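User: I'm curious whether this sequence folds into something compact or stays loose and floppy. Could you predict its structure so I can see for myself?
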Amino acid sequence: MTRLSVNINKIATLRNARGENNPDLIAFAHACEKAGANGITVHPRPDERHIRRADVPAIKGAISTEMNIEGYPSEEFIRLVTDVKPAQVTLVPDAPGQLTSNHGWDVAANADMLKEITKRFHDSGIRVSIFVDPEPEQVKAAAGVGADRVELYTKSYADNYADDRTAAISPFVRAAEAAREAGLGLNAGHDLSLQNLQYFHESIPWTDEVSIGHALVCDALYLGIAETVKRYQECLGNN
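Assistant: Here's the prediction. I'll summarize afterward.
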């Protein structure tokens, strides 16, 4: 089964626009869970333009599904994650002011740092996923630093899906096979949508988890969150 983790950053962006608690992040997370989501993802950035650091423990204490915290492993981020103890942390190589994640780690070039940080999270009982481009050598390097999973950065798949979906998925299949051979779990995320998710899952059915935020929240504006989660789960074969 491929699990659906809903990234609620965009809900926090909308809330922050008015400086009040509407929409309520916890209420939205509960609505996602009630609709059948298998987890909640948050990505607290240094400027707190969407998820704030104070949101993270509040959300963790309120949900009943898995929590995944994404972010660059600064000391402040590491302290937050080890205090909150989510099921999973996803390490991304984002610069502090970056609008959104736009590339994976060069794992080999950052191996010493990633190995040390992975151990620190493991010591707190937290599963570690490393965000990588769909390149087998990066996947193998992630196994070498002790990661439990990799998350494949799927923007290139989404960008090229409409033109040639077979070509678009090919590097991801190769990377996913490398992960399986290395004994790593497999996550995926970025620009996955109702248009392209089903084919991705059919091509790589051993994917453990997809993390989806922007497209899912946009769809929910038209369909409502319950129907939206239902449709995403149907794309994953979770009827």
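Summary: The first strand starts at residue 3 and ends at 7. The longest helix spans residues 165-182.
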